[in-house]
Amino acid sequence: MRHDAASEHAVDVGIQLQELLGTIDAALFLKEQVIHIDVALRVLLQPARRRDPSRA
To answer: Is residue 55 one of the residues assigned to a domain?
Structure first.
């Protein structure tokens, strides 16, 4: 379960930014949103390990 709705939204936006602008911009966005580095690395660099939104 994600910490809160704001964090969940930030991660979702970060994933979309990665697709549009690349990993560096997405990582900078997640850092600005105070998303823990472990989470940011997982969602940006290991897409297979992303959480299933249907299980949230």
So the answer is: no
Domain boundaries, position 45: 5-49
| Alpha-carbon span 47 to 51, nearest angstrom | 9
In a domain? residue 54: no
pLDDT tens column, 1-56 = 456 899 999 999 999 999 999 999 999 999 999 999 999 999 999 988 887 766 55
By the 8 A CB rule, do 26 and 18 touch?
Answer: yes
Read off the tokens for 20.
Answer: 């549009």
Number of domains in the chain: 1
H helices of 2-55, in order, are 5-21, 23-32, 37-45
Residue owning tokens 């940011």: 40
56 located within any domain: no
